Every structure is written in C-alpha cells, then in structure tokens.
C-alpha cells in the first residue's frame, strides 16, 4: 500500500504501525518534509521501516536526455524537465525557493525574523562550495555567528543542502576546521542568488564552479543510492593546496578526486594530487573532467567525470 505526502497527516503513522504489527501489511510511505515528521511528534516506525532519500535526477537516471549545460543552468529537479522554455524554468525555481522559505522555515516557526534569514540564504548561496567563514557571513547578514551556524543547521535539517567536512585522520583536528556547504540542487542555489542573467557557458568562471558543484552532488546522490558508505570530505593545506573530494571507506579505501571542467587535462592539473599523493601513499588519485580521453600521469588517473563515477560506484 502506498501513501504519499504522509507528513501532512502524521497521525496516519500510528495506523500504519498497527497494520504492520497486526496484519503484516507492507507500506511505501513518501513525504517531502522530513523535518515535519521528526519534530511533529510522529510515530517514526523505529525498527519497522527502511528510510531512503530521493534526490534530484542523476545524470545516469536521465540517460540520453542528459545535457551537462542544461544541468548546470537549471539543475535536475524532475519538474524542470517538463518545462520547455527558460522563463517557465526561472519562475518554477523562484517558486520552489519561496515555497521552502514560506512552508519549511517561516510557518514552522524555525526562525523569529525572516528578514535576516533571507539575507543569509542569498549569502549562503553565493558562497556555495567555499569554506564557511561564519564571521564574514555574520557581518553580511547582520546577525551573530552562532545564529549563522543555526541557519546552516536549518538548511541541513530541511535537506536543502549538505556539509562537506575537512578531511583529517585525526577526528580532533578535523573538528577544529570549518566545513564547506553545498546546496542540494544547482537550480535552487541559482534561484536563491537571483543570478539568472549571468552566463554560465563553457569557459566562464561560473561554469567551472557549477561543474564542481554538480559532480559533488552526483557523488553524494550515488553514494546514498548505492549504499557505498563513503565518508565524503575535502582536504586543504596552507589555503593554496586543495583536493575537491576525499572519499574514505570503512575498509580503509581512500580516493583523492580533483574536479576540473576542462576538455583537455594536463599535468598542471595534477599538482595538488601529486602533493597529497606523496603524503597519503594508500590513496587512489584521480582527475575528473570533461576530457573524454582517459590519461595517466604517474599514479594519477584522468577520467571523464561520468567514467570516474562509474569507476567508484561500479555503475
């Protein structure tokens, strides 16, 4: 039996619980607000249900209809693919962002003052993928740093984005450094920055940043769907050497992945990987890019980004 948008009537979960216990009925329950269930005192069917998250489409789900440039412009929310022109897509993404603010945050009384939170959303979207500087964002939004931290926690709790923690084999040292934050969909992030007039074509600075964001979202989605159990992080040293993605597995397997939007990978794209590869001899190092020709630079492999995803997740 299937029940959609179960968060609208949380009391149904008590009935579901009873029917599972008394009759052994199997249910498929879907909802668009995990927060409402968690904080509404609902019966979460502990021990009786498997929990799965559904993300925007991956490139593999879209198959032959996938176009990278479209994904970087509009994101991959399912509704986007049914809209035929740019104006409709812009209005849909604006509406999606406004609905989130109205229903998920304001009506749920998660914050007391909507004005600084709106400012925060725009700043957070503009700094998407950068190491979070709570003091700078505090100055821009005119709220204290602890409030900024709480705002980010709201974004994570409402599934609007996710943190990437800095990698270090020492948990204590890892916890002292600030994370990055990525929005769950490029289109929604773009709507929050209100930058629909900006060109994100190939060769632009925006193209490179959005390509990195998109590939990291792909990694997060596939890691969940394939239950691969990778811990996803990044590594930075001295503010000038950085690896975009570190995948560490409970078995000890370690991947260092540098994401480049170039169509032609060269040795110069491997400097950070060479540096960290010497420090972590057990790591598998790779550059993922738009270059369709597989290459190698010593122990570093260079793959088209989709081939890299297939290599890691066995697709």
Written account of the structure:
The protein has 2 domains: 2-39, no CATH class; 59-313, no CATH class. 43% of the residues lie in helices and 16% in strands. It is built from 13 helices and 10 strands. It has helices spanning 12-23, 34-39, 59-62, 68-74, 86-106, 114-126, 134-141, 145-157, 171-176, 186-193, 205-225, 271-279, 305-313; strands spanning 2-3, 28-29, 161-166, 180-183, 231-237, 241-248, 254-259, 283-289, 295-297, 300-304. Helix 4 packs across helix 10 (186-193), helix 6 (114-126) crosses helix 10 (186-193) and helix 7 (134-141) packs across helix 8. It starts with a strand and ends with a helix.
Number of helices: 13
Q: Shape, please?
A: globular
> Spans with pLDDT under 50 lasting ≥5 residues?
none
N-C termini distance: 30 Å
Number of extended strands: 10
What fraction, in percent, of the residue positions are helical?
Answer: 40-55%
Key structural traits:
315 residues; eight-stranded mixed beta sheet; 2 domains; single chain; alpha/beta; 10 strands; two-stranded parallel sheet
Q: How would the blueprint of this fold be written?
A:
Layout lengths: L1 E2 L8 H12 L4 E2 L4 H6 L19 H4 L5 H7 L11 H21 L7 H13 L7 H8 L3 H13 L3 E6 L4 H6 L3 E4 L2 H8 L11 H21 L5 E7 L3 E8 L5 E6 L11 H9 L3 E7 L5 E3 L2 E5 H9 L2
Can you give me a brief rundown of this structure?
With 315 residues, the protein is an alpha/beta fold.
């Amino acid at each position: 039996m299937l029940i959609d948008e179960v968060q609208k009537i949380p009391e149904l979960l008590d009935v579901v619980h009873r029917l599972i216990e008394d009759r052994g009925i199997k249910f498929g329950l879907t909802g668009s607000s995990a927060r409402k269930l968690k904080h509404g005192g609902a019966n979460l069917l502990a021990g009786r249900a498997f929990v799965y998250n559904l993300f925007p489409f991956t490139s593999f789900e879209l198959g032959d209809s996938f176009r990278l440039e479209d994904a970087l412009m509009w994101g991959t929310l399912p509704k986007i693919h049914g809209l035929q022109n740019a104006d409709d897509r812009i209005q849909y993404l604006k509406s999606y962002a406004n609905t989130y603010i109205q229903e998920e945050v304001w009506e749920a009384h998660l914050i007391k003052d909507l004005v600084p939170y709106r400012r925060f959303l725009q700043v957070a979207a503009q700094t998407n993928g950068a190491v979070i500087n709570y003091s700078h964002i505090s100055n821009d939004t005119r709220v204290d740093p602890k409030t900024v931290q709480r705002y980010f926690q709201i974004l994570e709790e409402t599934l609007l984005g996710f943190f990437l923690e800095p990698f270090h084999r020492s948990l204590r040292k890892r916890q002292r450094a600030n994370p990055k934050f990525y929005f769950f969909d490029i289109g929604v992030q773009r709507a929050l920055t209100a930058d629909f007039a900006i060109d994100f074509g190939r060769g632009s600075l925006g193209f490179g940043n959005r390509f990195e964001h998109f590939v990291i979202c792909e990694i997060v989605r596939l890691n969940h769907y394939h239950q691969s159990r990778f811990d996803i992080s990044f590594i930075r040293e001295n503010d000038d050497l950085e690896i975009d993605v570190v995948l560490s597995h409970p078995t000890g397997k370690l991947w260092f992945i540098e994401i480049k939007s170039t169509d032609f990978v060269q040795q110069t794209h491997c400097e950070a990987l060479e540096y960290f590869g010497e420090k972590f001899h057990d790591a598998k190092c790779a550059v993922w890019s738009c270059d369709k020709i597989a290459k190698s630079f010593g122990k570093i492999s260079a793959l088209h980004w989709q081939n890299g995803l297939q290599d890691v997740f066995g697709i």
